[in-house]
Specification:
Blueprint (H helix, E strand, L loop, with lengths): L1 E8 L3 H13 L5 E5 L9 H4 L8 H4 L9 E5 L3 E5 L4 E4 L4 E9 L3 E3 L9 E2 L4 H10 L5 E5 L3 H12 L3 E6 L11 H13 L3 E4 L3 E7 L2 E6 L4 E4 L1 E4 L3 E3 L2 H5 L8 E2 L11 E3 L4 E5 L4 E3 L4 H15 L11 E6 L2 E7 L6 E8 L3 E8 L2 E8 L5 H7 L8
Parallel strand pairs: 1-2, 1-6, 2-3, 6-18, 8-15, 9-10, 9-15, 10-11, 17-19
Antiparallel strand pairs: 4-5, 5-6, 7-16, 12-13, 13-14, 19-20, 21-22, 22-25, 23-24, 24-25
Length: 383
């Protein structure tokens, strides 16, 4: 049995941030990371952004977790957690003990009913390598979904000259986040870039024929493609938490020090359900800023240097020549107030409830995240 002062399950950005915070607070503590990914921790945003524009993976992707005195046990899946004995067991039968445990297990992409290698769910570095190689061939691609991943991957594939069809069940791109007029503008904008966007049209069935995947839509149309990229969102990986008897509700429920319902067990990142005081509600956030800040906060808590996690995460995206940063609750069902310098090209959109700001979308507007964060919960405006 291998024993650690600190053991982290999961090998993503959250795990790396936690390990670094632990190492800073406790230079001598032993840290183990068990990850099903064959690669050490890496940054995910470049996989759908910068790498498609020519960025060097060596400079933008790898986080260097192996240089801070961490025992990385890669390509392994934890199958059981025993919170009473303080042990975990992996799929090779290895048992490790811990003093403090962090569940940074992330999420798993929602799957389609058809089992085929022609579908890429796009979450890992290996997914990027595979899709990038396919994009070097003259193939036809379909992107299912008009959300965060779908919109970025469709843009990335078009930037390298590929034939892309987006199948979006909503009436616009990003319709679950953006107001209707902006969402519909994005449809026209993507079409101007050469993307075949099908809105208000979901997929009804998938079939294989003559080397192609046939996407059958809810409008009765058939679209033959070589590769499908599915951007259908993720499901939080809570199976270990449930097996260990932890409280689970839309993720693993944690307190303000990111402790779960079991002693000395913490959770952070995509999988954690935490209370945010600025919004006065519980959240589960699947973006880079939360992975980094929450991971670091969990690491400090595990090392006895914790403070309440009150951070309100932001997120961002690049959509061809457009881009945005956003903070708070972006729900188009809320009242919205758009203040444009250049309509749909540069401006700020406020999401309001009872005349108080719940979220701020900074559309091609940069350097304002902290100011936007400061007005959440108030009647204020930027500028």
């Amino acid at each position: 049995m291998t024993s650690y002062n600190y053991l982290i399950i999961g090998g993503g950005m959250t795990a790396d941030a936690a390990a670094r915070a632990i190492r800073e607070a406790d230079p001598a503590g032993t840290i183990g990371v068990i990850s099903s990914d064959p690669h050490p921790p890496y940054n995910r945003p470049p996989l759908s952004k910068g790498l498609w524009k020519g960025d060097d993976p060596a400079k933008t992707v790898w986080r260097g977790t192996d240089t801070i005195g961490v025992d990385l046990r890669l390509g392994r899946r934890v199958t059981a957690v025993n919170t009473k004995q303080k042990t975990v067991t992996d799929d090779r039968g290895n048992v490790s003990s811990y003093e403090k445990l962090l569940l940074a297990t992330g999420g798993t992409p929602r799957r389609l009913p058809l089992q085929t290698g022609q579908i890429i769910y796009y979450r890992t570095f290996d997914d990027y390598v595979r899709l990038r190689a396919l994009a070097n061939e003259k193939l036809r691609f379909a992107v299912l979904g008009g959300g965060f991943i779908g919109s970025e991957i469709a843009a990335a594939l078009k930037l390298v000259g590929r034939d892309v069809t987006m199948i979006v069940p909503e009436e616009g791109i990003g319709a679950r986040v953006f107001p209707g007029d902006l969402s519909k503008f994005l449809v026209d904008y993507y079409r101007e870039q050469g993307v075949d966007v099908r809105t208000g049209e979901g997929f009804a069935d998938l079939q294989q024929s003559a080397g192609k995947v046939i996407v059958k839509t809810t409008h009765g149309k058939e679209i033959p493609v070589d590769v499908i990229v599915a951007g259908l969102g993720i499901v939080p990986n809570v199976e270990l938490a449930e097996q260990a008897g932890l409280r689970v509700e839309n993720g693993i429920v944690v307190d303000d020090l990111l402790r779960t319902s079991a002693p000395d067990v913490y959770a952070a990142g995509d999988v954690a359900n935490f209370f945010n005081p600025a919004l006065g509600t519980r959240l589960r956030v699947e973006h880079e800023d939360n992975a980094n800040t929450m991971g670091a906060a969990a690491g400090r808590s595990m090392a006895g240097k914790g403070t309440p996690y009150t951070h309100l995460p932001f997120f961002y995206s690049d959509l061809f020549a457009l881009g945005y940063e956003a903070v708070g609750e972006l729900d188009p069902r809320l009242q919205t107030d758009s203040v444009w310098k250049d309509r749909f090209r540069e401006g700020v959109i406020y999401y309001l409830k009872d005349d108080k700001v719940r979220g701020v979308l900074l559309w091609n507007t940069w350097g304002q995240v902290d100011n936007a964060r400061a007005i959440i919960g108030t009647t204020g405006r930027l500028g």
